[in-house]
Amino acid sequence: MTNRLCYVCEGGDCTEKGSGDIFDKLRDLVREFDPNEERIKIRRYPCFGACEQGINVTLYPDKVFYSKVTEADLPEIAAHIAGKGEAVQRLTGKCEPDVEQIIWDMLDSPY
Amino acid sequence: MSIVDLEAKIPNNVGLRENKRLMMALEKWQPKFLDWWANMGPSDFNQDQVYLRTAIGVGQGGWAHFDYVKMPDYRWGIFLADGPDDRKIHFGDNVGEKAWPEVPGEFRNRLRRLIVTQGDTEPASVEQQRMLGHCCPSLYDLRSLFQVNVEEGRHLWAMVYLLQTHFGADGRDEAEAMLERHSGDQDNPRILQAFNYPVNNWLDFFCFTAFMDRDGKYQLASLAESSFDPLARTTQFMLAEEAYHLQTGENGVGRIVKRTGEIMAEGKDPRTVGAIPLDVIQRYVNFWFTGSMDLFGGEDSTNAAEAFAMGLKGRYRESDGIYKDPKALNANYSLEMPTEDGKIEKKDIPLRRAMNAVLLDAYIADCKRIVERWNRDLDKLGVHQHIQLPDHKFNRHQGVYAGFRFNPAGEIIDEATWTKHHTDWLPTQADRDYVQSCMVHVTEPGKFANYIAPPPQGVNNQPIEFEYVKFH
Amino acid sequence: MTDFNRHPSSYHHWQLQIDGDIAQLRMNVDSEHPFKEGYELKLNSYDLGVDIELADAIQRLRFEHPEVKVVVVGSAQERAFCAGANIRMLAASTHPFKVNFCKYTNETRLSLEDASEHSGLKAICAINAACAGGGYELALACDEIHLVNDNNSAVSLPEVPLLGVLPGTGGLTRLVDKRKVRRDRADVFCTMAEGMRGKKALGWGLVDAIWPKSQFNDKVDARARELAASLPDKGKKGIELEPINAQRDGDTYTYTHVKVEVDAARRLATVTVTGPTGPQPKTGADYEKAGSAAWALRCFRELDDALLQLRFDHEQVGLIVLQTRGDAAAILQVEKDLVADRGHWLCNEILLQMARTLRRWDLMARSTYALVGEGSCAAGAFFEMTIGCDRVYLLDDENVKMTIGPLSDGLLPMSHGLTRLNNRFLAMPEQAAKLAKEQGSYASADADEQGLCTYLLDPIDWDDDVRIALEERVSLSPDALTGMEASLRFGGAENCDSKIFGRLSAWQNWIFTRPNATGEEGALTRYGAPESAKFDWRRT
Known about the structure:
Distance between the termini of chain A: 24 Å
CATH superfamily of chain A: Glutaredoxin
Low-confidence stretches of chain B: none
Structural class of chain B: mainly alpha
Number of domains of chain A: 1
Shape of chain B: globular
Radius of gyration of chain B: 22 Å
Radius of gyration of chain A: 13 Å
CATH architecture of chain B: Orthogonal Bundle
Low-confidence stretches of chain A: none
Number of strands of chain B: 5
Oligomer: heterotrimer
Number of domains of chain B: 1
Shape of chain A: globular
Order of helices and strands of chain A: EHHEEEHH
CATH topology of chain B: Ribonucleotide Reductase, subunit A
CATH class of chain A: Alpha Beta
CATH topology of chain A: Glutaredoxin
CATH superfamily of chain B: Ribonucleotide Reductase, subunit A
Structural class of chain A: alpha+beta
Number of helices of chain A: 4
Helix content of chain B: 40-55%
């Protein structure tokens, strides 16, 4: 399976909506698949700019942008991240494409 | 997770109780800091009760504890993010070696300079903003200002902790000097020029927090990658707070833009109702955005190359492993260079020398995002005049574009064109006077000056009309 | 051919402004005007072109502005006083160029100190911003160093920690010998890339005064006025220094009184200097009227230029052959007149200029042989040049003479302060004293007797012996010769000046060629490159 990088937004809005707990729980769930973060890294990210759609979680290199994430969605997201499930379609495509693109541009760094 | 000692005179999670030498040094510095706060911090509000978030721990939620507090009683403490004990250096020449728990002698002076330069900006911004409380547009915003101020104060503590812990007598001297330099003081100014500019009004303030603090975020992010582990962990924790400052600025400018948009949508001239026209906001954005880019250092910089090679400053989010080569060798960066005959040419420079430019690119993308966010609000109101982010070459005083004239679109222009148009592009005295005239002082809970829209929600789930500051 | 002529009206890198008895000399390096292509002169960093202008400015202050008593050396750039020699320029330069560049800049700074000591022209350095490496070395050459105390501006010598080389312009020597900074503190200072600021710099004796930024210009001005008021008047109106140009024809440079013939194939150059012809000024007032055309000034300015051409444009020339021509009596008359009116500022300056040029001659990193043969005129200052050579070949002929003039008794000192006679007769100081006192003219056999030549050659052997001597010399290792000559030329005790050049030709010359500095992974090569330096850790 591919190495994956997952960001949980910790911008002001997302944090107020509880992204801190989401981060902790998602990390615990993913660690069940990959205990030492060898293939999957879960990281905080200081604001993607899609604040109205928070809580936001992104997955790279899949380039999946999950919005309005709640605790109930986490098992499905974790399974997807770990390569054991499909992308959770109901949480994607909510954010404006140009806002999404900024984070992919950074991750696609030519350097 | 590390233990947080909140009962100590200086709250911390660095085991200060066990380190007598350090504790003595910091306890000696603390009254000087409080003196500085009293004399150079926010003017006249030290007896008021402010609804502030105070860091009481580094884990989730630990740093988002809210309560009323008098600013001088704010618990400025020392917090390092938790990290693995066996962190490895993940970029530069020493990649793969163990991260340094102590300062290596060969990098001591350079690291000290980095820390001093970063640390100096923290109290500088508090000084720049010290008079703003007297013309706040609302209690909500006054609270935001003070939140930013106390946290910048804590960031100073964080840097001073590193200096006192790891840099011996020199570090102590530097810690004192941080309180002796003052923003705008002709004889003893702050180190970076942009931190000597006055921040006179709330449009300045929000632009400052949106753009200059965002520069701070990227500088901190690059230090958060450092091979010097205490610096990395300190700055990682600072980043969490810094994110709130950016939000204050991004939302603040956004709310001013939105209010102007609302008035325009009503078919009124913003000037007739004490709001700020978009062209004036545009000029302020131009000024602060370009000034903030100057803080990144030269696009082609041997200093930056060395800091990367030595493992002192990494690229933005380097540890996420998003870059192709952690040594950044054998790659070039294509840099736009102005030529003598008025053209712009692409020139390849070794990637390491372009580290400032790489960081600046990430910053600019971030700024584009916030401007687009403001413009979406205008679109929703049916206003199709937009705020534009000027080109990165415009109005630069540092780096490869300094000394050349560019228009905001990034086209090279001659001096005559500049002279004719620069007042269209940068704030004029008339703009400053007008913005100043809009700065009405509003302290009734839930009320806002007419140039700024209320926020969508209050702080910490409190209503917007909450009494965020209780005057004594 | 390198043009060393400059004029304040067309400086690229300096602003020279005269206001009564005070001159402001402000560095404002035009980054787009490097001496050679390929680097930018950022932050008031300098290269040879910048230093040629500085040397010109000092010369013009001495000759064109005798009314000036104090020169304030400052910067017209807000962000930098001076960042020192341009590192990219150094890294891109050949080894011989680097060393010659350092030597030239040393001579420029020494001329500043010489003006202070002998011409009543004091220098105040006004450090308004960052001052690193060669910038601080320039400051060290001034009489007083004033530093802005803004918590930011530092003086530094970062060569060792940043570049793996030494400060090349006398910084180390002046620190301990001139400013008498304690050796352990100097050690700390020279390994601290960021240098020292404000009170600490003052406390350690690195600077003489610190001033707050808002008062800096006023305080420096006040000090300059105070200092100027304490100094005696010299002269009111100077003379104009005309440019020095040689006619170049192939490898031959022809000046009015000097000729240089380069024989590239044999790695030889012949320098021929000629004495005065026609009437010469007698008094200082006459010299003021005559201007820079007078032989005593013109000849030595030409020689100065010729030596620089050899240094910079003919690196492969290993041996310089000196030929002297002219009328000994005429030379001696000029010298006697200059000495007689030495109290006049211009006579004084002309003598000092002769002395400086002869020191430049002593410091050529080439072998120097004097051929005193038929038609030679080894008299007065030319006698000094002759015995300044590594060897003197004298033709055994009663018409060939060596003539000692009034300047040999101390007015043309070598770098280390000795006269050339004293330096020659270290074992027999009484002989040196006797020769200087007698000021005699010695026919060749007598000259040999007096110890003034290396070989006295019979006319029938002359051609062959001279040819063989020259060919033998140029076959030896150029590096070993440079080191040997520098060691043998300056006998006796050292002083600050001679240490500076001695250290340059020994330590710096060595360090510049070591892999730790200029190898592929050396610190100078890698400065600003993506990778850091790698050292061979063995100490030698």
